[in-house]
């Protein structure tokens, strides 16, 4: 393969998580065991230092329809509210409504916060189910994949273009980036929110590696991509959401000076060797140690006769469950709030998903797969903790 970012040809495998099902492919019980599996391997580009998957599950399979909803967790909605307010402060006032385009707008949660600020909004969302939820909630949404062709069909310039948690998904990476360039006002700002690979490595959050996430960015390599298309990042901010997400502020090349905050973040990557292959070899070894530790913990609890439930049924949790081999041998079920997953089974391990508000039995231990919402989960479960229910976080990152 060639590098998805720079077209380089010198790529080296740094982490192999085996063959796994597409992790958002939650199953009806009658379909259990019929799901296809695909290689889940991370490679490192020696030219631009981008880590990425070497196998692509087609976007039509993964994003034509899915069960992820942005609005399920209060933490994420609050994060989106803060992002909208922060962006609004740097967008110049005009003799018209400010405009925002959200790429991968999901159920419209981000755009609702822009609507509150008086923006004219448009979402582009590939999932049929979630785009309908957004439209029913009064958020104008185009059900399509965003790329250069879509941008030209919209035929409009926007003051703000937002892409939250989608820029590392892109099969049509360069066409999408060209579409952003095409659609951005000359003084506009593109806000790209992405899982920060530096934090994934530091937190040992390997479960954030799955087929939907084709690319894993640090500032150095996303800048390589942006520069190829006449864009550049001028500022950035690290948020605790999802265990460490970078919010990058981007505009047309040469339009704005880079902030000291951005320059300091780039320097930090250099000091911590975040873009060197030795860091990723070490990361792979640490993942193996984590697997041994977690299986030993689960073994101990089962031998003690403890009942263990999984807390949350996030997509990333399936990477961990499948790689560790954690299924009904350890967990009775996965406890969720998202009703779109009610009654389904997790891909690979086939654990039943049950709704939190319908539980009839309380476990002794929650193995928390939705660890990125640690604060919210602990705050919502003070009564259970007081009763002695244990909450175990396989990834203990600074989280929202």
Description:
- With 400 residues, the protein is an alpha/beta fold.
- It folds into two domains: 207 residues, 3-Layer(aba) Sandwich (Rossmann fold), CATH 3.40.50; 115 residues, Rossmann fold.
- The chain is built from 13 helices and 16 strands.
- It has a seven-stranded mixed sheet, sandwiched between helices.
- Strand 4, helix 3 and strand 5 form a beta-alpha-beta unit.
- Helix 2 packs across helix 3 and helix 5 runs parallel beside helix 6.
- The radius of gyration is 21 Å and the shape is globular.
- The model has no long low-confidence stretch (mean pLDDT 93).
Strand and helix layout:
Blueprint: E1 11-21, E2 37-45, E3 51-53, H1 59-63, H2 74-90, E4 99-103, H3 109-116, E5 120-125, H4 128-136, E6 141-143, H5 148-154, E7 158-164, H6 173-183, E8 184-195, H7 197-203, E9 215-216, H8 219-228, E10 231-239, E11 245-252, H9 260-271, H10 277-303, E12 308-311, H11 315-324, E13 334-336, E14 353-355, E15 365-368, H12 374-380, H13 382-386, E16 390-392
Parallel strand pairs: 4-5, 4-7, 5-6, 7-8, 12-13, 12-15, 13-14, 15-16
Antiparallel strand pairs: 1-2, 2-3, 3-9, 8-11, 10-11
Helix pairs in contact: 2-3, 5-6
Number of helices: 13
Give me the secondary-structure category.
Answer: alpha/beta
The succession of helices and strands, N to C, reads EEEHHEHEHEHEHEHEHEEHHEHEEEHHE
Instruction: Give the CATH topology of the largest domain.
Output: Rossmann fold
Shape call: globular
| Quaternary form | single chain
**Mean of residue pLDDT?**
93
Total strands: the figure is 16
Helix content: 25-40%
